[in-house]
Predict the 3D structure of the following.
Amino acid sequence: MRQRKIIPGVDPKLLIKDAAKLMPDASRRGFLRGAASLGALTFLTGCDIIDGETAESVLRKVSEFNDGVQAALFSPTKLAPTYPESAITRPFPFNGYYDEDEAPVVDGKTYKLEVAGLVENKRSWTLEELYALPEVSQITRHVCVEGWSAIGSWQGARLSEFLMHIGADTRAKYVWFQCAEGYTNTIDMPTALHPQTQMTFKFANQILPRAYGFPMKIRMPTKLGFKNPKYVVAMEVTNTDKGGYWEDKGYNWFSGL
Amino acid sequence: MTAEIVATTEAETTIHPLWVRVCHWINALAILIMIGSGWQIYNASPLFDFVFPRQIALGNWLAGALLWHFAAMWVLVINGIVYVTLGIVTGRFRRKLFPIRPADVIADLKAALTFRLAHDDLSRYNAVQKLLYTGVILAGIVIVLSGLSIWKPIQFQELTALFGGYDAARYVHFFAMVAIVGFLVMHVALALIVPKSLRAMITGR
């Protein structure tokens, strides 16, 4: 939406393709078929009347208001329901704005997690050191912004404990994540400190495969899937909202569940 | 004067008091936005083997549709709460919608299907109208509650569980939409067949 405003005449199909890539195959086909029709093109032009600049800025204001509402609704102690192993969705879907074979390949031997911002100890962490952190496990529901959901099994370290360990200022507002492919994500501190928010190194007790974000994913069952970054290479504790890949395209910032 | 007396005196001259008309049209706008954007959201991950034509879906793509949906929800819910509250406290629901007798519904349905249903007095609903208006209010409550349980399946997990879990709540939400759209089709068609009913919802008389 915003792209269409900043660069007039930008191919809306690119945007649709961007969005469609995030979808399961069946719906992706339907979406692209619809986008290719002449009717869709007239709709895109016609929809400027209701999707115009004023409407968009009002809608974004309401979305910001909804961020506040969701922050108020968020309980730091309320846990996401957990499931038995038999409930795990197999195969757990790969999901991203690129195809699986385009997913980043991170070398575990040279990998280092960079730590920055309002923390006492800014030294970076090797994978070996991260694996040595106390392990917790969860079988929870991953809910996609598109509506589908899948149950997965994730193991790793509590982010809250890691933040304490590195002397993070937990009065700061945000934690920002950067990923190997350039994906970024900002989350609120209360979610970062939630007991189920996890620095994930394993899926179903196996080292995280490339498809699910090797070497590290941040698993937050209290947020929509796109707020759970994969291939995380850096984190920063900050008071500045640095936005994120999908948030900047129009998805709600808080996206809590 | 109590609200009850105001409403009764008003009812003698007015078919629909001002609050009913204002709530009706705000609701009409909000529900159209909710349905249009809801169709676009559905298309991102369809529950069935079909998608809604993009020409009639609102928001251009998923993010736009979600922005519309989560903005119009406030209008729908706040307006809905005002409407239902006033409907109960003024006694309008009790007077206009109840009782609904199955025998009357069958008789009026027969009359309607043979185009013999009288519309002389718009201030009195026939049994089919009573059933449909009550039904659509209930569908409205179900769609809001199932929507809340999809939006916040963790913070409102007890509510989500009541609908049979997250995935089941999506189906409930969808079928409540189907019920409302079904109502809308009939409602708009009948308002056009009996234009004075449309006039009454605008001018009150």
Q: What stands out?
A: Residues 112-205 of chain B form one domain.
